[in-house]
Amino acid sequence: MAPFDHEAHKKWYKYTTSVITSLSWDPTTETHTPFRATTKHVHRTWARTHSSTPALYIQPETTQELELVIHLARHNHKRITVVGSGHSPSTLTCQKDWIVNLDNYSKVLHVDKERLQITVQAGIRLYQLQNELQKLGWSMKNIGSIMDQSIAGAIATGTHGSSLDHGLLSESVVGLAIMLADGRVADANQYENGDLFEAALVSLGSLGIVTEVTFQAVPAFKLAWTQQVLLLDKMLSNWEKIWTTSEYCRVWWFPYSERTIYWKADRSDALELKERPKSWYGSWFGYHAYQIALYFASWFPRLTPLVERWVFALQYGWEEGTTGSAVEKSHEALAMDCLFSQYVNEWAIPLYKGPEFITRFQAWLMHDDATARIPFPSKGIYVHAPIEVRVTNTSISRTPRPWLDPSDPQGPSLYINATLYRPYYTDFPGMVTYYKAFEYLMKEMGGRPHWAKNFISVTKEDVWGMYPRLGDWVALRNSVDPEGIFVSDWLKELILPDEQPIDEKEGGYGQWTPEEGEMDQSRLGESMGSFEFVSEGKVIRTPLSGSVESLY
Ligand SMILES: Cc1cc2nc3c(=O)[nH]c(=O)nc-3n(C[C@H](O)[C@H](O)[C@H](O)COP(=O)(O)OP(=O)(O)OC[C@H]3O[C@@H](n4cnc5c(N)ncnc54)[C@H](O)[C@@H]3O)c2cc1C
Ligand SMILES: O=C1O[C@H](CO)C(O)=C1O
């Protein structure tokens, strides 16, 4: 084996990360495969709702590097969680072993101009993907509220937008490449490894590392949108019309103002672009004024309805009618300002159940427990922020349906998202009761929670009752990852059967004793007891199990 050349390796380091020494030697190319890891990373969700300090944070840049990560994890008994942009506000991406991030694995690999399809490395963020599509005169047909997510992360949790003409974002995914726990890359699409494809469309990060995504684009289009102040009662009495008038539509429900904002958009390529009106809380002053007001309200919750009505009037005006319009490129029109750190608890129910849900939950928020019929007293509970009301329709999907798709397979779905801001990262009082009441009613209506979000009273038993194909999904997951490399605590707590034999051992997921011939010596080198890598000028030794130690 060639001696380790520190100087040469330093050249590989980006973000002062590192390269593994002996285990990375690749005799076919006679080079070391870089292992870009650091021991100092603190992983935080975008909203700073959860954090974890992984033993290693790894940012591979090539497929070989990814393969090395998986081999090393397997031989070191480490679990892997891949994180995209960390926009899931739950503990879904938290991991004490190894966190892998694909921000530097985000290239465009192939463009099929005839089919309008693009194949990209899976770490690409949606805004980067959109930039690439724009160069080709293409676009994504649907997005959610933001474009910061990685494509793989958005797919993995069932991210959706708001349109009855479209399903989840993953509806546009034509094919995936997934690196499985043995380092093998499997192609999965409608025709090849179909089961893996349907399972991986909502993978929750636990089937393997999605490395490539082939995405169906559409020709770029403009959207003309309007938004109007609509009384809550009127919104409910026009329920069907609200969701069927325009291709894209969404409602923000402001309980204390007893008003909603009804936003709708249609394609309008013939129109000139027209800028959106200024938003009050989009200004520096409005942003901070709202946040400070919410901060005070977190100390004196009774002030919340007042704050909410004040902000509503400044942001939208109080009178019914149109309060803004614009003509924008599709992705600019659909994206919105999500303001502050927040908890979000979002569920899907059949669309026709929406009016009953909204009527009863509005009553609960107004402290009318008799109408609400929710067994959690609402006394003293004041919440804020819009409750987002959106739609999707996966029942007419032209592409395979993800096995863990939370929306209704029988007809159109309504997504209701109870957002609770955290002014200056402070938790708002009453959240637990608010969310318990919300989830009680959601369960009564046959709802299923959005996988990425902050649901709090859902048990494993509930989840198994919600998904008829969960057994198939778990069986497939276990068959492609029998050692549980991609099993996170989140998955164990919420999904995996208690009796599943995942060996818990300090410092590793199982006790491993190398057997004769088990290790590929030519690939993994001679260092069986530990491996070393350089980080920020220090040589670090990571034992096969146990914590990372600094040598010098
Ligand atoms: C401000 C804001 C707005 C949002 N708006 C919407 C919205 O409009 N609609 C909606 O439905 N949701 C919305 N979300 C939720 C968001 O779309 C999801 O949480 C999404 O999963 C985040 O993508 P990410 O890249 O940050 O993934 P992460 O949160 O980092 O990860 C999510 C999951 O993907 C897995 N994963 C990531 N990359 C890979 C990979 N390469 N291979 C395998 N698994 C992988 C992770 O392990 C994890 O299980 C919003 C969230 C925020 C904070
Ligand atoms: O999770 C989400 O956050 C925003 C609301 O602020 C949104 O639309 C989600 O979905």
Automatic annotation (TrEMBL):
Its main location: membrane. Residues 50-220 form the FAD-binding PCMH-type domain. NCBIfam families: FAD_lactone_ox. Pathway: Cofactor biosynthesis; D-erythroascorbate biosynthesis; dehydro-D-arabinono-1,4-lactone from D-arabinose: step 2/2; Cofactor biosynthesis; L-ascorbate biosynthesis. It is found in: Membrane; Mitochondrion membrane. The keyword Protease does not apply. The keyword Membrane applies. It catalyses: D-arabinono-1,4-lactone + O2 = dehydro-D-arabinono-1,4-lactone + H2O2 + H(+). This is D-arabinono-1,4-lactone oxidase. One of its GO terms (cellular component) is mitochondrial membrane. Keywords: Ascorbate biosynthesis, FAD, Flavoprotein, Membrane, Mitochondrion, Oxidoreductase. It comes from Ascobolus immersus RN42. Belongs to the oxygen-dependent FAD-linked oxidoreductase family. Its cofactor is FAD. PANTHER family: D-ARABINONO-1,4-LACTONE OXIDASE, L-GULONOLACTONE OXIDASE. Pfam families: ALO (PF04030), FAD_binding_4 (PF01565). InterPro entries: ALO_C, FAD-bd_PCMH, FAD-bd_PCMH-like_sf, FAD-bd_PCMH_sub1, FAD-bd_PCMH_sub2, FAD_lactone_oxidase-like, Oxid_FAD_bind_N, Oxy_OxRdtase_FAD_BS. GO terms for biological process: L-ascorbic acid biosynthetic process. Its EC number is 1.1.3.37.
